[in-house]
């Protein structure tokens, strides 16, 4: 066992709070001292069904007792089934499974470049957005629009052209560029602080992409899987991406990512051009199938829309007029409370009152609770945030 008095042997990639979580049930978790918390961060949007969901737990236990891994040199029945279910619900044509959102986005970037080379474009370029977040691998951090994530890792991967998010004019001005092959964006910018698209923006991006034979790559890693009240957030705009990436809540905590494609780009990969040792293994895929079945059986996508609306209304009612509160925004159970000052100190202050939250972009309290959240629990979140923000302002 590690000695708490000894220096950590971990690389300092995170700055964790002095809280060690031991178990969870539903939207609640308990630390090693027995203290209970309401988890409004959901493991950073991962614990879609809450903690220790019995149906998912049973699926994991059964698969672990049967076969955890077999490699993609053999047909994996649960992977085939998961691909069928996901492509059906998203109206896509093919799926590639990996282990994380960053890997799913790497796959999307490679597909876009392959698509470009197939059109005899020597320098295929992907349009990406300011303040975007797509991952921490070298290619995805290059696509990310936040300099703080890129500093020290130069030279960055070329082939990306950055424009402001929510600015359709900036995109249309690029239509004469012969090297562009795709536009990559988040339907809601999560890491930037839950930045919402303007009405009509996503539909306009889709139109520009279609008119210019560009792929529309939609990073649904944080917003997807029902969190916003639609299976995919961009479906609320009545459009479909050509490539869609998923991860986070797909298997409720078991690592998995997915890159989905449709149309001419769907069959582009040939054997040996891409792969993943662990991606789509039997354990992860069976857990993901259990999650998707539960979303449907328990009508959790509709519940996320309704409970998210309720929580946002409670927050607006309770927090209106508090010093430093600038905006409350979001869709479904993806909510941001923007302050006019840095507020990372609220993480521990909220935890001391029994609530786990997250802060994005220094000044935005980001709420990503499980889709099973009740109205009573939403009331509790609102009440605690009122206390901590009021105290923080004072």
Task: Explain the overall architecture.
The chain is α/β, with parallel strands linked by helices. The protein folds into two domains: 21-52 and 299-393, Aspartate Aminotransferase, domain 1 (Alpha-Beta Complex); 55-297, Type I PLP-dependent aspartate aminotransferase-like (Major domain) (Aspartate Aminotransferase, domain 2, 3-Layer(aba) Sandwich), CATH 3.40.640. 35% of the residues lie in helices and 18% in strands. It is built from twelve helices and 15 strands. The protein has helices spanning 42-45, 54-64, 77-90, 101-118, 138-143, 147-150, 168-172, 201-212, 282-297, 300-319, 346-352, 375-393; strands at residues 21-25, 28-31, 36-39, 94-98, 125-129, 160-163, 180-185, 215-219, 243-246, 257-261, 325-331, 334-339, 355-356, 358-360, 364-367. The strands form three sheets. It has a seven-stranded mixed beta sheet with strand order 4-10-9-8-7-5-6, with helices on both faces. A four-stranded mixed beta sheet has the order 1-2-3-13. Strands 11-12-15-14 form a four-stranded antiparallel beta sheet, covered by helices on one side. Helix 3 runs parallel beside helix 9 (282-297). The longest helix is centred in the last third of the chain and has 20 residues, at 300-319.
């Amino acid at each position: 066992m590690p000695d708490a008095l000894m220096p950590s042997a971990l690389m300092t990639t995170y700055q964790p709070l002095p809280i060690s979580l031991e178990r969870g049930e539903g939207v609640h978790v308990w630390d090693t001292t027995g203290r209970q918390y309401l988890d409004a961060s959901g493991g950073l949007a991962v614990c879609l069904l809450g903690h220790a969901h019995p149906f998912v737990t049973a699926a994991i236990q059964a698969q672990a007792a049967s076969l955890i891994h077999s490699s993609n040199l053999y047909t994996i029945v649960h992977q085939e089934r998961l691909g069928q279910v996901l492509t059906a619900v998203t109206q896509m044509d093919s799926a590639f499974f990996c282990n994380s959102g960053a890997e799913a986005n790497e796959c999307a970037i490679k597909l876009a470049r392959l698509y470009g080379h197939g059109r005899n474009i020597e320098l295929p370029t992907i349009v990406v957005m300011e303040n975007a977040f797509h991952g921490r691998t070298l290619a995805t951090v290059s696509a990310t629009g936040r300099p703080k994530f890129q500093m020290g890792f130069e030279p960055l991967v070329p082939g990306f052209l950055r424009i402001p998010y929510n600015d359709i004019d900036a995109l249309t001005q690029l239509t004469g560029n012969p090297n562009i092959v795709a536009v990559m964006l988040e339907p809601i910018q999560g890491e930037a602080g839950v930045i919402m698209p303007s009405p009509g923006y996503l539909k306009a991006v889709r139109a520009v992409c279609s008119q210019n034979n560009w792929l529309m790559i939609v990073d649904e890693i944080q917003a997807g899987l029902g969190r916003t009240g639609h299976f995919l957030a961009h479906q609320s705009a009545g459009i479909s991406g050509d490539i869609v990436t998923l991860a986070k809540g797909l298997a409720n905590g078991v690592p998995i990512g997915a890159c989905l494609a449709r149309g001419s780009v769907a069959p582009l990969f040939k054997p040996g051009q891409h792969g993943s040792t662990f991606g789509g293994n039997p354990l992860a895929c069976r857990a993901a199938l259990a999650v998707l079945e539960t979303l449907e059986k328990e009508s959790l996508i509709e519940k996320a829309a309704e409970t998210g609306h309720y929580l946002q209304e409670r927050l607006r009612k309770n927090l209106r007029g508090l010093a430093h509160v600038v905006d409350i925004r979001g869709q479904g159970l993806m909510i941001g409370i923007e302050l006019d000052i840095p507020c990372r100190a609220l993480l521990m202050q909220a935890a001391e009152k029994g609530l786990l939250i997250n802060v994005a972009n220094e000044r935005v309290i980001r709420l990503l609770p499980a889709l099973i959240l009740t109205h009573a629990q939403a009331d509790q979140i609102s009440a605690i945030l009122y206390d901590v923000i009021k105290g923080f302002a004072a």
